[in-house]
UniProtKB/TrEMBL annotation:
UniProt domain Helicase HerA central: residue ranges: 149-383
CDD domains associated with the record: TrwB_TraG_TraD_VirD4 (cd01127)
Organism: Sphingomonas changnyeongensis
Protein name from the UniProt record: DUF87 domain-containing protein
InterPro entries: HerA-like, HerA_central, P-loop_NTPase
Length: 553
C-alpha cells in the first residue's frame, strides 16, 4: 500500500506553515489516530532537507524525541515522536507519536500561544504535519507566570530555559533518579539551591547519608551531624524505642515489648510535664530519665507476682545500659538531653525562622548503622507530626528530602518492617494534605516501594543503566510521557527527562553547571592521577586509625 497516497496525496512543497521565520514546508501527514498510539507518515527527503536548518529544533524534526505540530481548526496540536520505522518503498517513514498538548494559533504569524496540556480535538487522517520551531518551543515551555525555578536548557535548543513550577513540584512530591556517576548529587544540589534562592525563609530538611551536601550548603544552610545534632532520645515513639532497645525475636519480643511499655509509661509519668497531660500514652514525647527506666525495670524484675523468669528484664536493662555507655550514641542518648528541648530542636532543624538559611543538612554518616534508620524515622515522623498538630495555625510547609531513599523505603522484597519505611510511605500518601512535601533521591528506583514512587507527582530521571529500573520508572509515569522515557538509557551526564506536575509537558533538559563552592563533595576519584602519588603513608595511617578507634571524625 502506498502510504504517501494514503496520507492524502501529500505534497510537501504546497503546504506551508508560517512559524515566525521563513515558512517551512510540511514534513508529512497523519495516517492513523488512536489516542496515544497515533501514527504519521513522514517524507525522508523532507527530514533530510530540514536537518540542514540553522534552528536546532527544526533540524531535529522527524527524529525520535523531537516534536511536531498538527493544525486542527485554529489550534496547533503538539506531539512527541516516540518511534520510527521504514515504510513502503523507502521514501518515507512511519512514526508513532504521543500527543503532549495544544496551543492557539496567532492569526498573523501562525505561531503557537496559550499552550496547555491535553487534547480537545484530534486531527483526521491526511492532516499535514509540520516541524516545531524554537519560537514555538519558547511558547510551549513558557512558565506562564506561575512561580518557577530555571534549572537548565531544553534539548535540543540552545537558549530556551527549562523551568520547574515550584508549587506543583513541592505540593505533589518529586523523585530524582539516576545511576551512579550521572551527576545526581550535583543535580539535587542545583534544584535545592534554586529553591533556597527563591525562598530564603523556607523550611527544608535534607537527610544526607554520606556527608556530601555539607560542602554545598555551607553558605545558605544549617549543617548538623553527630557532633551538634543533640536529638533527644525521648522524642522516639514506642515503635522506635522497640527498634533500639529490643534484641529478641518471636514470642520473646512481644514479652519484652510489654515490659518496656509498662516501664516507659511509668518513667514518663514521673516528669512534671506529664501532670498537664490528661491521658498520657507511651508515644507522647515527654522527657524521662534513662536511669528511671532501668530502675523501674529492676523494680519490676524483683516483684513476686511477675509472670515468667527474669531473662526479659535482664535483656532490656543490659541493652539500655550498653547504649548509655557507648560514646557513639551520645548524640542521642546523652544524660544532657533530658531537659525539655523539643521546641528548640524543632525550631533549629525545621528552620523556624529560617534566618536566610532555609535548609538543614542532617549528616547521618557518623550515626551507628544499627540506629541510622531510627534516627531518620524520628526526623521524618517529627516533620509529619508537627504538620498534623500545627493545623489551625498559620501553615509552615516543610520539604523533607531523602537521599539514598531505597535504603529507607525498600520494596516488599527487601522490606524489613522498619518504622522509617512506614512513616515515609505515609508522608508520600498523606503529606500533601498537611503541607509536608517529600523529595526522594535514589539510584535504584526498582528497590523503592512501588506505592511511594507512584505518589511522586514529578519525576526527574537522569540516565538509568539497569533495565529493571527503566521499566519501573516507565510504569510509574503517565501514558503520554512513556516516549520520553525511552531515551533515558541514552541521556548524557547532567541531562534529565522531567515529566509530571512540575512541568507543563515532559521535557528533556541539559542541567546548568553549578559553581564549584555550591557543589556536593561527591566527585569520583581519579585513579590514574591518585595512584601516581606517594609519600606520607605512615602519618596518614596513624591519623586514620586514631579516628577509627575513637569512632570520631
Amino acid at each position: 500500500m502506498d502510504l504517501a497516497n494514503h496520507a492524502g496525496a501529500f505534497q510537501p512543497a504546497d503546504t506551508k506553515a508560517a512559524t515566525g521565520h521563513a515558512a517551512l514546508p510540511a514534513l508529512g501527514a497523519v495516517i492513523e489516530i488512536a489516542g496515544s498510539n497515533s501514527q504519521l507518515w513522514l517524507e525522508r527527503a523532507q527530514i533530510d532537507l530540514l536537518g540542514q536548518d540553522a534552528d536546532p529544533s527544526v533540524a531535529m524534526a522527524g527524529q525520535v524525541g523531537s516534536q511536531v505540530k498538527i493544525k486542527v481548526g485554529s489550534v496547533w496540536l503538539v506531539a512527541n515522536v516516540r518511534s520510527l520505522c521504514l515504510d513502503g518503498d523507502g521514501s518515507g517513514v512511519r512514526a508513532h507519536i504521543d500527543f503532549l498538548g495544544e496551543g492557539d494559533e496567532e492569526r498573523l504569524t501562525g505561531r503557537i500561544y496559550n499552550f496547555r496540556r491535553g487534547v480537545t480535538r484530534y486531527p483526521t487522517p491526511g492532516t499535514p504535519v509540520h516541524p516545531v520551531t524554537s519560537a514555538d518551543m519558547k511558547e510551549i515551555y513558557a512558565a506562564d507566570g506561575r512561580p518557577s525555578i530555571e534549572i537548565g536548557t531544553v534539548y535540543p535548543t540552545r537558549n530556551i530555559r527549562g523551568a520547574l513550577f515550584i508549587d506543583a513540584l513541592l505540593g505533589k512530591h518529586f523523585a530524582l533518579l539516576g545511576s551512579t556517576g550521572t551527576g545526581k548529587s550535583t543535580s539535587a544540589a542545583l534544584i535545592l539551591h534554586r529553591i533556597c534562592d527563591m525562598a530564603p525563609e523556607g523550611h527544608i530538611v535534607m537527610i544526607d547519608p554520606h556527608g556530601e551536601y555539607a560542602a554545598a550548603f555551607k553558605g545558605n544552610g544549617a549543617i548538623y551531624d553527630v557532633s551538634n545534632l543533640a536529638m533527644p532520645y525521648w522524642l522516639m515513639n514506642f515503635e522506635e524505642h522497640c527498634e533500639v532497645f529490643l534484641t529478641s525475636t518471636g514470642s520473646n519480643r512481644q514479652m519484652d515489648a510489654d515490659i518496656l511499655a509498662k516501664c516507659l509509661l511509668a518513667a514518663k509519668a514521673k516528669n512534671r510535664l506529664a501532670e498537664s497531660v490528661s491521658k498520657l500514652t507511651v508515644d507522647a514525647p515527654i522527657p524521662y530519665l534513662l536511669s528511671d527506666l532501668t530502675n523501674l525495670i529492676q523494680l519490676e524484675m524483683g516483684k513476686l507476682d511477675k509472670a515468667g523468669d527474669s531473662a526479659p528484664y535482664m535483656r532490656l536493662k543490659t541493652k539500655i545500659d550498653e547504649i548509655k555507655a557507648d560514646p557513639r550514641y551520645s548524640f542521642m542518648f546523652s544524660g544532657m538531653l533530658v531537659a525539655d528541648t523539643m521546641s528548640d530542636f524543632i525550631a533549629r532543624v525545621f528552620r523556624l525562622p529560617g534566618d536566610g538559611k532555609p535548609i538543614s543538612i542532617i549528616d547521618v554518616s557518623g550515626v551507628p548503622s544499627e540506629i541510622t534508620s531510627v534516627v531518620v524515622a524520628v526526623l521524618s515522623r517529627m516533620v509529619f507530626d508537627f504538620a498534623i498538630w500545627a493545623r489551625g495555625e498559620r501553615q509552615r510547609p516543610v520539604l523533607l528530602v531523602c537521599e539514598e531513599a531505597h535504603r529507607y523505603v525498600p520494596n516488599e522484597r527487601n522490606a524489613d518492617g522498619s518504622s522509617v519505611g512506614r512513616i515515609l510511605s505515609r508522608i508520600a500518601k498523606e503529606g500533601r494534605k498537611y503541607g509536608v512535601s517529600l523529595g526522594l533521591i535514589t539510584q535504584r528506583p526498582s528497590d523503592l516501594a512501588e506505592g511511594v514512587l507512584s505518589q511522586c507527582g514529578t519525576i526527574i530521571s537522569m540516565r538509568l543503566n539497569n533495565e529493571r529500573d527503566q521499566a519501573f520508572v516507565k510504569a510509574a509515569m503517565p501514558e503520554g510521557s512513556r516516549g520520553f522515557l525511552d531515551s533515558v538509557p541514552a541521556l548524557r551526564n547532567r541531562e534529565a527527562i522531567i515529566c509530571g506536575e512540575g512541568v507543563s509537558i515532559p521535557i528533556r533538559v541539559s542541567l546548568d553547571t553549578l559553581e564549584e563552592h555550591r557543589r556536593p563533595a561527591s566527585g569520583d576519584p581519579l585513579f590514574s592521577e591518585l595512584w601516581k602519588q606517594t609519600g606520607g603513608e605512615d602519618e596518614m595511617l596513624g591519623r586514620v586509625i586514631k579516628r577509627w578507634r575513637s569512632q570520631g571524625r
